Automatic annotation (TrEMBL):
Name of the protein described by the UniProt record: 3-hydroxyacyl-CoA dehydrogenase NAD-binding domain-containing protein
Keywords: Fatty acid metabolism, Isomerase, Lipid degradation, Lipid metabolism, Lyase, Multifunctional enzyme, NAD, Oxidoreductase, Peroxisome
Any Pfam family: 3HCDH_N
Pathway membership: Lipid metabolism; fatty acid beta-oxidation
Ranges for domain 3-hydroxyacyl-CoA dehydrogenase C-terminal: 473-559, 595-680
Subcellular location as annotated: Peroxisome
Listed SUPFAM superfamilies: 6-phosphogluconate dehydrogenase C-terminal domain-like (SSF48179), ClpP/crotonase (SSF52096), NAD(P)-binding Rossmann-fold domains (SSF51735)
Domain 3-hydroxyacyl-CoA dehydrogenase NAD binding: 293-469
Lineage top rank: taxon: Bacteria
Cross-referenced InterPro entries: 3-OHacyl-CoA_DH_NAD-bd, 3HC_DH_C, 6-PGluconate_DH-like_C_sf, ClpP/crotonase-like_dom_sf, Enoyl-CoA_hydra/iso, NAD(P)-bd_dom_sf
CDD domains (UniProt xref): crotonase-like
Length: 689
């Protein structure tokens, strides 16, 4: 837990609690005891606090929240540092996050390695720093800069941390030796520079800037209880003495730990990491080397996928069948990189490096040397089967053959090759170079090493790969189809497009389904329904009139003069009434809560079926998909976690009611949901399916 070494009259304490030195109860106790010993040891003049592994301290142990706290608490350990008559200097060799940074700020000095990331990400977990962070950071860098850092939760580089004044210096080479020197310098100086004693940064100007930032933040997200709490905690530090303000912060923090938003965000944090573990896929499964890639299709998706490889340093060939499409695709990619460089999100050198890793080529035979080939061609089974049967003879032995299909049967695609074990789906989400989620579609014959390689590749591409099984729409789109169908039905029953969109955005989505449809283009769904069957009477009627949405200036809404936000169109509302009459559907008004239930419960029901069929291994995988692929509000934890908070009995009873109201018996609760509801169970209680 904490190793002690003595080097002359300096004690070096090294935290060792893999994988991230999280400050769980055992580590806190071990650190507290070690500090007590070296502080009491007359032979020791100064102390260095170091850590093992690539992370300095990843924060408090999030898995302990909401459970009985074992002493000493982190504030107790920091009080020991405050009371220390000897200097303690932190040697920050890696990420110092949350409680890790709070620990370092309670030291008398901080030396960082160039690779260290420094931050207080608590806001992302629906809480705020709870061990002095809202008090010490403002004393180091001012309440304005501190609030700005804490309200986004984004870490800064070691260099930036030094420029701000969070760390004293950034040192290449032997970090502990540098920290040792600094600790002895402080010991020799005869003074103990405690952050809590500083007030030079707490100026009226800085306070004014802080209050303006706080007002903005609260206005931007009025329901974010933790943003309000963060403002109150920082303000307390400007109005109360240090210890009183720390107590204020602690009270705010403890209240937030019990907040359902924070419980959902902490659930999502672990669900995302759990998704990387595929039941039955041993950790030591061999991987195939991926040194080069080929993407078939230079369209929006193909170009975006190619950018993911180029961004990860993997050379990639983009293959088209004709020169014009290839040139247009490559130009689009170059334009995207130019935009990023112009905005400063990448340097010009990075732009040129990444563009340089993407080669255009004509003809499938150019894919012959690639370690992985990703097909991103037209969403048509005939096209895909033709491509895969050719790739079967062109791709080198052992190459992984992946389809970026959003819906289609990957087993049927694999079946046209003589190497079904090398075939799987990699369903990227648009825009592929931005969205983190990738549904890794495991076909019946996909070999374990191919799946393991694809999951590692997903992480290497800085994506969030979640393993799913083969069915129409896999997990995300299969559930989305249920919400779309429910939305269409609601239109016929009397809820207007803007009422439905308003209920969905109030629920926490960035956009409602109809505004989203107008943005994506109503022609896409219309064509897909024509190919795969299914009817959306209102959306189809609009598409048949050429009302495709923003791209035609009219869809569910009107977009006069290229407006980006739609306005209500009486013509559409009259059309809906006509279609409802044709279908003999009586109309009535709906409350926002009814709209949310009618849209989201069928999704949850489909999620239950997906679990029953083993298409997803666990409810957390479904939630991870919806938070990262469809912008389900993370503070609601995803559809399955949210259903647990609603109560599965409530959900099941409502679904039965919807089935009888709409005559659609596919709304009847799935057997798994019925069983859990009857037992008073929760999806969270399910072990891996
Ligand atoms: N607590 C418990 N487990 C943690 C953890 C944490 N803080 N951080 C990571 N893990 C686990 C994670 O679940 C995974 O487990 C393994 O470590 C590797 O994680 C009092 C209250 C540090 C940048 O929010 O951002 O301090 O799946 O895959 O990609 O004010 O982990 O292997 O079983 O993410 O190398 C604030 C959260 C806490 C940082 C490393 N701290 N962690 O990234 O590894 S609240 C955070 C991260 C707090 C104080 C407050 C990242 C990382 P498993 P990983 P990585």
């Amino acid at each position: 837990m904490v190793r002690q070494e003595v080097d002359g009259d300096v004690a070096v304490l090294t935290l060792a609690n893999p994988p991230v030195n999280a400050l769980g109860a055992a580590l806190r106790a071990s650190l507290d005891e070690a500090l007590a010993q070296v502080i009491a040891d007359q032979a020791i003049r100064a102390i260095v606090l170091a850590a093992e592994g690539k992370v300095f301290v990843g924060g408090a142990d999030i898995s302990e929240f909401g459970k009985p706290q074992h002493p000493p608490s982190l504030p107790d350990v920091l009080e020991r540092l405050d009371a220390s008559p000897k200097p303690v200097v932190a040697a920050i060799g890696g990420a110092a996050l949350g409680g890790g940074l709070e620990l370092a700020m309670a030291c008398h000095g901080r030396i960082a390695a160039p690779s260290a990331k420094i931050g207080l990400p608590e806001i992302k977990l629906g809480i705020i720093p709870g061990a002095g962070g809202t008090q010490r950071l403002p004393r180091l860098i001012g309440p304005d800069a501190a609030f700005a850092m804490m309200v986004t939760g984004e870490p800064v580089s070691a260099e930036k941390a030094a420029a701000l004044g969070i760390v004293d210096s950034v040192v290449l080479g032997d970090l502990v030796a540098a920290a040792r020197t600094r600790a002895l310098e402080i010991a020799d100086s005869g003074t103990l520079p405690r952050v809590r004693d500083r007030s030079d940064k707490l100026t009226p100007e800085a306070r004014e800037k802080f209050e303006a930032l706080a007002a903005d933040a609260v206005k931007r997200d009025p329901d974010a209880t933790n943003v309000h709490a963060l403002a109150r905690a920082v303000r307390a530090g400007l109005e109360q003495d240090f210890d009183t303000a720390v107590a204020t912060e602690r009270a705010e923090f403890r209240a937030l730990v019990e907040d359902p938003r924070s419980q959902a965000l902490r659930y999502a944090f672990f669900a995302e990491r759990e998704a990387a573990r595929v039941p039955g896929l041993p950790k030591d499964t061999p991987r195939r080397p991926i040194r080069t890639a080929a993407v078939i299709g230079a369209g929006t998706m193909g170009g975006g996928i190619a950018m993911c490889f180029a961004n990860a340093g993997i050379p990639v060939t983009v293959i088209e069948t004709e020169g014009g499409a290839l040139a247009r695709g490559l130009d689009r990619v170059k334009g995207l990189y130019a935009g990023s460089a112009k905005r400063g999100s990448i340097t010009e050198a990075q732009r040129d490096e990444r563009v340089g890793r993407i080669t255009g080529a004509l003809g499938l035979e150019q894919a012959g040397e690639a370690d992985i080939v990703i097909e991103a061609a037209f969403e048509d089974m005939g096209v895909k089967r033709e491509i895969f049967s050719k790739l079967d003879t062109i791709a080198k032995p052992g190459a992984i053959l992946a389809s970026n299909t959003s819906y289609l049967d990957v087993n049927a695609i694999a079946a046209v090759t003589n190497r079904p074990q090398d075939v799987l789906g990699l369903h990227f989400f648009s825009p592929a170079n931005v969205m983190r989620l990738v549904e890794v579609v495991r076909a019946e014959k996909t070999a374990p090493d191919v799946l393991a390689t694809a999951l590692d590749l997903g992480k290497r591409l800085n994506k969030l790969p979640v393993t799913v099984g083969v069915c129409f729409g896999f997990v995300g789109n299969r559930m989305l189809e249920r919400r779309s169908r429910a939305g269409e039905r609601l239109l016929l029953e009397g809820a207007l497009p803007h009422e439905i969109d308003a209920a969905v955005t109030a629920f926490g989505f960035r956009m409602g389904p109809f505004a989203m449809g107008d943005l994506a283009g109503l022609d896409i769904g219309w064509r897909s329904r024509k190919d795969f069957g299914g009817r959306a009477p209102v959306a189809d009627s609009l598409a048949e009139q050429g009302r495709f949405g923003q791209k035609t200036g009219r869809g569910f809404y009107l977009y006069p003069d290229g407006a980006r936000t739609g306005t209500r169109d009486p013509e559409v509302e009259a059309l809906i009434a006509r279609v409802a009459a044709e279908h003999g559907v009586a109309r009535r008004s709906f409350t926002p809560d009814e709209i949310v239930a009618r849209l989201m419960y069928p999704m949850v029901n489909e999620g239950a079926r997906i679990l029953e069929e083993g298409i997803a291994a666990r409810p957390g995988d479904i939630d991870t998909i919806w938070i990262n692929g469809y912008n389900w509000p993370a503070w609601r934890g995803g559809p399955m976690h949210w259903a647990d908070t609603v109560g599965l009995k409530t959900v099941a009873e409502a679904l039965s009611r919807f089935a009888s109201e709409t005559g659609d018996d596919s709304q009847e609760p799935a057997p798994l949901l019925t069983r859990l509801a009857a037992e008073g169970g929760r999806f969270a209680g399910l072990k891996n399916a």
